[in-house]
User: Which sequence fits this backbone?
DNA sequence: ACGATACTGATATGTCAATCTCATTAAAGA
DNA sequence: TCTTTAATGAGATTGACATATCAGTATCGT
């Protein structure tokens, strides 16, 4: 546990990648992108920084079924995701749907929901 | 690859578990349940049988974000799932929602969708 | 500029689901 | 019943991902 917290170019590079990110990214994608800014960057630092950023509440984990965890900025509002079956990129969706509550069985309490669309993205159609 | 196919009590036990299954089950859950019918049943046989049943089209894989794959009978119609955050059981939902297509961005083509609700089930509320 | 120490990078290690190996068992046609 | 060989069970192995280790580096308050 660190009481102090230092600003390093590694963490800044990772932060920068997440700041410009379109959809949620996997650790190795973040690594590859941040590598352009800090060529010596190790994958362990990516995992460490992601954990720190999560603890700080800046970043949130997004799980897509059958895939390893991805990460996105947590300042984005409520939204859902689209997985392209061809290029395997995940896109953010802006809107949500009505009537989710109608799905909940009697006696159950809903706290959250997620919708994942599958198909082909604009580039892969 | 086997040209022939034999009926064994192991496979029948696994089939029986899936026949009475309420929501999708994980391999180790199927194993634990089928163990009551065939005490010697090995986990490898569960994986092998699940693969066979998938090839035959009897069983389908269901992925819940952040969890390992679960399996359910494929004769169930279109439906979605509810994950209880307390007991981690997955329940089938009967209805679907309208307006999914409105989420799709221009130029994208949708082929499928899934909705996962999170909360507390009847027993855990 | 100095010093304490948080951070990093390379690699070893851990974790866990799923598969493979292989000797043994048992299903089913002859 | 006999024979062929598909299927099984136990344990070893794999593979993907994440964490731990530790010596060396770099930040930042003084």
Assistant:
């Amino acid at each position: 546990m660190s009481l102090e917290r230092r600003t390093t170019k590694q963490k800044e590079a990772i932060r920068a990648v997440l700041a410009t990110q379109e959809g949620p990214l996997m650790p190795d994608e973040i690594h590859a992108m941040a590598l352009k800014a800090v060529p010596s960057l190790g994958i362990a630092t990516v995992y460490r920084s992601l954990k720190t950023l999560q603890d700080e509440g800046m970043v949130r984990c997004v799980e897509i079924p059958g895939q390893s965890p991805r990460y996105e900025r947590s300042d984005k509002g409520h939204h859902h995701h689209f997985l392209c079956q061809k290029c395997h990129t995940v896109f953010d969706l802006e809107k949500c749907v009505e009537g989710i509550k109608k799905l909940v069985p009697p006696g159950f309490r809903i706290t959250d929901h997620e919708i994942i669309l599958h198909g082909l993205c604009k580039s892969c159609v």
